[in-house]
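Need tokens for this chain, all 476 residues.
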Amino acid sequence: MTNRQRIHFVSLGCPKNRVDTEVMLGVADQDGYEIVPTAEGADVIVVNTCGFIGPAKEESIDAILEMAERKTNGQLSKLVVTGCLSQRYATELAEEMPEVDHFLGSSDMLKLHDVLTQPKTERMLVGNPASYTFRATDPRKLAGPAHSAYVKIAEGCNRTCSFCSIPSIRGKQRSRPLEDVVAEARMLAERGTIEINLVSQDTIAYGRDIDGKPTLAALVRALGEIDSLQWIRLHYLYPESLTDELVEVIATHPKVVRYVDMPLQHASDAMLRRMKRGHGGERLRRVVETVRAKVPGVVFRTAFIVGHPGETDADFEELCEFVKWAEFDHVGVFRYSDEENVASFEQDLKVPAKISAQRHRKLMAVQRPIARKKNKARIGHTLRVLVEGPSEEHEFVMQGRHAGQAPEVDGVVYLSGAEVTMGTMIDVVITQSAEFDLVGEVEGGDGMIAAEEAREKARAAAAKLAKKRVSLRIAQ
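Here are the structure tokens for all 476 residues:
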């Protein structure tokens, strides 16, 4: 029997938000709380929200209301709301949700200690969004298995994209010292992490704001010296200043996966100007050509916004042609969300929601055969796969990811032919493919998943992945 208070976390939004949740998990663990996987039986619930675009805000509000009902019914003693939504709408939430005991903002993770240990802590603890930058010495407890982890290398953003509220929610860019990032990665590796995924709002700008101006390439090389790390993955590269040094690191470093995650947002010059991206479509073509030419076998993920104010039929058709030309491996498509307090909100020529939805469907239809072709081309090839564990969708099936599949967003490899161990790297011969997922036989194993069963598993996983896109990956 234990007398410890039980705490449950609901974590929404992007991987950067997940790291924040893991910091609060570390705080709760240090404060002696028992962390429980479901709301049932919890004494305290913390909802870490996303407040970037409309669907994510709705998801966050729904989660708060669901947990508030448990508070009203006397099923828990304390409800805490944190993250981007409470940073952005602190006053409104406090007025509309009296059931919530405490509000923390996007930089207030460590204040959870006071909430959990001090009986008379203030209700409103939303501080300056630029007041915190994660440090390797801060408490952190991974929310999932140790073999894969996100490492946040900077907070905030200095860019002024017209559709984006992140600088007002998260503050200006604050890069972590190179040595601090390496220290955290080393600690993770000692606990069993073999894949690290570098994230920030503008990863390619890492180091520009701190003494010595360390480059992203220098950081990656330093991380590559950690013996037990096997995969280093770069997320959210902005399409400018893609230096020869960084391209060479991605192309040649044995631990850096040949994977580029670069949200491009559009291809039309007119739309890129309205979005205040700082470049035109021709630069994007050069970037794609450079990456393809200098990084053989690269897997390219990107994201686009459709329905932004001023987007004409011609602009959208130009985007479709660009996607056909570039043949990206993974594409996320987001419908524009008209958010107050950003420049796009004041722009004219709004695109009706119906048209935006139609364009979303059409662009995904353009990408779908490309994705299927890319995956089909892998049949017969042997890929190195990180075993993630049992499938959440299918009983008795193990799954993993190859280097071209980032956690949670790019599909999986279903495994057959031999028993495998979670958190290990194995060689797999690909035998079946679908739009997002693959099926492979473990080298040295015997037996296969029946083809029709494999296809069904791939379709089901792809459907679930589509539903999770908004909450797991917000357009950068």
